[in-house]
Amino acid sequence: xxxxxxxxxxxxxxxxxxxxxxxxxxxxxxxxxxxxxxxxxxxxxxxxxxxxxxxxxxxxxxxxxxxxxxxxxxxxxxxxxxxxxxxxxxxxxxxxxxxxxxxxxxxxxxxxxxxxxxxxxxxxxxxxxxxxxxxxxxxxxxxxxxxxxxxxxxxxxxxxxxxxxxxxxxxxxxxxxxxxxxxxxxxxxxxxxxxxxxxxxxxxxxxxxxxxxxxxxxxxxxxxxxxxxxxxxxxxxxxxxxxxxxxxxxxxxxxxxxxxxxxxxxxxxxxxxxxxxxxxxxxxxxxxxxxxxxxxxxxxxxxxxxxxxxxxxxxxxxxxxxxxxxxxxxxxxxxxxxxxxxxxxxxxxxxxxxxxxxxxxxxxxxxxxxxxxxxxxxxxxxxxxxxxxxxxxxxxxxxxxxxxxxxxxxxxxxxxxxxxxxxxxxxxxxxxxxxxxxxxxxxxxxxxxxxxxxxxxxxxxxxxxxxxxxxxxxxxxxxxxxxxxxxxxxxxxxxxxxxxxxxxxxxxxxxxxxxxxxxxxxxxxxxxxxxxxxxxxxxxxxxxxxxxxxxxxxxxxxxxxxxxxxxxxxxxxxxxxxxxxxxxxxxxxxxxxxxxxxxxxxxxxxxxxxxxxxxxxxx
Length: 619
What we know:
Layout: H1 3-28, H2 33-38, H3 50-53, H4 74-112, H5 118-141, H6 145-169, H7 175-196, H8 199-215, H9 223-243, H10 248-268, H11 274-294, H12 302-305, H13 307-331, H14 335-356, H15 364-385, H16 389-409, H17 412-431, H18 444-464, H19 469-510, H20 517-549, H21 552-576, H22 579-602, H23 612-618
Helix pairs in contact: 4-6, 5-6, 6-7, 6-8, 7-8, 8-9, 8-10, 9-10, 9-11, 10-13, 11-13, 13-14, 13-15, 14-15, 15-16, 15-17, 16-17, 16-18, 17-18, 18-19, 19-20, 20-21, 20-22, 21-22
């Protein structure tokens, strides 16, 4: 049978089955006989389909309800997406590398056997690179863009390698000529990226541009030429991200700039080049500092949205570290003023971000990030410029200022930074600071603790005015920390006072007098008794404040401190103190407890819900 006749028979069979099914559906829907007869198939199927005979709808079919689409599971979809990405992207890139490696091996083999001379080798490479780029356009017009860009990558790579060989290996062209030709390749790639609206080609142009100095390096120090060229590339990248939503180019541009800068610095930098180097570093910093403000909004998901914050943070940290390392040999303390200047710059950039925002959420991330960087540089400047406990004092003052500004502008971020600076100061005060005290109370340690207590009190005051649960938790933590620091500060003053008295006994022993152990023990007992007295007095003060402010939270702190003091009196003071101190301790403690108990029994705060008369009668 002729193949065309066979295909015709199969088509007739398929058409007969379909029309038979339509006929049965119409009959099940009780349509009019005239329409049914008109719809009766003119061509009968040669052989009835088993599936057609089994068509027995169990429920009336409504023609206005479309059939449900076939659901594709997410696992199948993700598997197909992964397969498509592997086939179209990963294999593509591996293929590019394989082709370049294969071509390089072939050319090396040909060169080793002197099949082609130096000029011919370079010419072949240039012609091959141009031909591949031109050939790739044919695939792009047919819709194979990814494959077309892959061919362009191969062609552009061959052009750069050919020019590198012409200059470095065969010395066919001078460095200036090779640079101009490589710059022409970079410019042509950038033009293709612009006209074809292809971000990947712009990335190729930047990679080639930043690779050019490495390919043409002669081992000489040409700082001005190198960094001027890098600055031009960075400005070009900035222009692209302003005009096109290609934010990811900022990462590539900054990485290329940083790598070239570090490479030059490690090889050629000397102190005589300080001003020039700082000038170029500042120029690079300025370009990437304004880039997050000017970059066009991206349209390709969250990865592009994360680029401006990432560049802002890395740029700020990299620039500060560059300046710090260069000035460390001269005077590292001067970098504190530099950190403060950077803080002022980022405060200005934060204001500019808010002014340029089309909507409150448009640049909020960059705005808050600039503000965070400004506060971070202020925090860094304090330990660089100050020493010892003045660092702690500086952080406390910073926390107070941030807290005041946050209350004025109603900024939650500034509140967080204020608490952060306060935590740094308290941590340094408790762990690092080592004070040398010569007189009680009027000393640097007591003043530092007093400043910390004042800032904690301000935090508690600001937070208590708010009604949210987070603010209440912060206020409670600040009050507890305030009381603990106050107790520690007063206890340290007591300890230093009696330590000085004990120290005064030792010179007398060295002068020939017999060391009076009884007198030393008497000083120790007086110190322990003073601790108990101090803690009982502080507990009583907290209890009074709790009654006055009607604060159960403060009263519970007072009860906890008094309970701790009771434990000390009964477990330690009974066995260690002299009879007189022991008597006074118990009498004072008992009187304090009776007074507190009387206040609770009088129920002045209406804690039990009874009438005052009932409370007094009960006593």
